[in-house]
Request: fold
Amino acid sequence: MKNPRKKNKHQRHQNPNQKQQQKSNQPAPNGRQVEQRQKQQGTNTAGAQKSSGKKHYLIACGGTGGHLFPGIAVAEILQGRGHDVTLLISEKKIDALAASGHSKLTFEKMPFLAMPKPWSPKMAGFMMGVWSGLKRCKELIRKHQTTAVLGMGGFTSFAPVLAGRQCKVKTFIHDSNAIPGKANKLTARFCDEVLLGFEECGQYFPEKKVKRTVGTPVRSALLWAATETSEDPYAFFNLNRDLPTLLVIGGSQGARGINNAVAHSLDQLDALGIQILHITGPGDYQEMTDAYAPKEIRLRSHVAAFCHRMDLAYRVADVALARSGASTLAELATFGVPSILVPYPYAADDHQTKNAAIFDKAGAGLMIKETDLSPEELTAQVRRLIQDQEHHQKMQTAARTMAHPKAAVAIADALEE
Reply:
C-alpha cells in the first residue's frame, strides 16, 4: 500500500533548504534553546522570565518513565535558566536506563520503594527507605540551600517533599493523570501547591489547596523535534518513507497486553501493507523478536527494546498503538499523532482509562479495552486511520489541541516565583 499521506509526510519531515542531512548523534537542544524557540513562535508567554541569581532545585521523579521524563523536562528548563538541579530517582533499572541519555543533568539514586499494603512484610523495608531518603534529602537541601522541591508523583516524591516542608522551603507536586495516585494524595498534605496535568484531576485534592493546571511536561528534545525537521527519521530506523507506519509503544517498561495483541495480528497487519516500529520494553523484546521472525512484515519493520530517540519515532508514525499514561499522551499530542489507546487495566484507580477517555472524547484518540483488542478489531482500526484521510486529519488536529508545549516552562515559573 502506498502511503496516502506521502506528500504531507515528506513536507513534515524534510527541510527543502537542508543540503546535508544532520547525523543522529547531533547534540540535543537544551532547555534555554527550547524556551527561546517557544518565545519566537509565540507559544511562550510567562516563560520568558529569567530569575535573578543562580538557585538550586530538587526534583523527585523516579519510578517510571511517566514520572521521570516530565521531571527531566522541567530540569532542562531550569538548567537552561542558569540554575542547578538535582533529580532524585529510584534504584530501578529503568530509571538508570532513561537517565543515561541525559548526561548533562545530575541524578541521585534514592532507596525508595513502592508503598506495600499496610500489613505486608515489605512495610518495614518501605519505612526504612522513607527514613533513609528523608535524611538524605534534608542533607541535600541544606548542602545546596535548595530553593524549592518538586515531586512528580509516585513513591519517590513523598520523602523529598516532606523533607522540603521540614526544611521550610517551597514544595510542589505535579500530577499528570486525570485522577491522582495514592502517593500524591498523601504527599499533597505537605506541599504548598498542586500542579495538574489535567484540570479534571483538581477535584480530588482538598478544596483549599492551591492548584493550577499546567499540562504534562515534554522533554526539550521532543519539543524541538516537533518543529525541527532536518533529521531523517526513516533513515534512522531503516524504514520506507513510502509506507504507512504503525508505532507500537507501551511506555518505558513496555506493555505485554499490547505486545501480545500485535503478535497475534501480524498476518492481518501485513495484509494492510504497512510497516511497524515496535518498542517492546526490555521484558518482551526477545519474545516479540521471535514473533516477527517468520513473518514477511519483519522485512519492513523495526523492533527495539527501548528507544532513546522517541522524537524520531513520533515523527515517523502515522498511527500509534499505545497505553494511555499521561506522558505518552502528552508526547502523542505534541506530535499530533492519531492513536489507538489501550489503557493498562491494572493501573491504580484505573487512571489510564480516565486519561484515555479524555482523549477519546476530544477526538484525539480511540480508546479500546485490552480485552476487546482482537486481531480483527486492531486491524480494522489501523486500516481506517491509514486509509480514511479525512478521519486521520481530524484526529491529528484534535491531538494537537491537547498539547501543552509550555508545561515545563509553566512549572519552572512556579518554582521560581
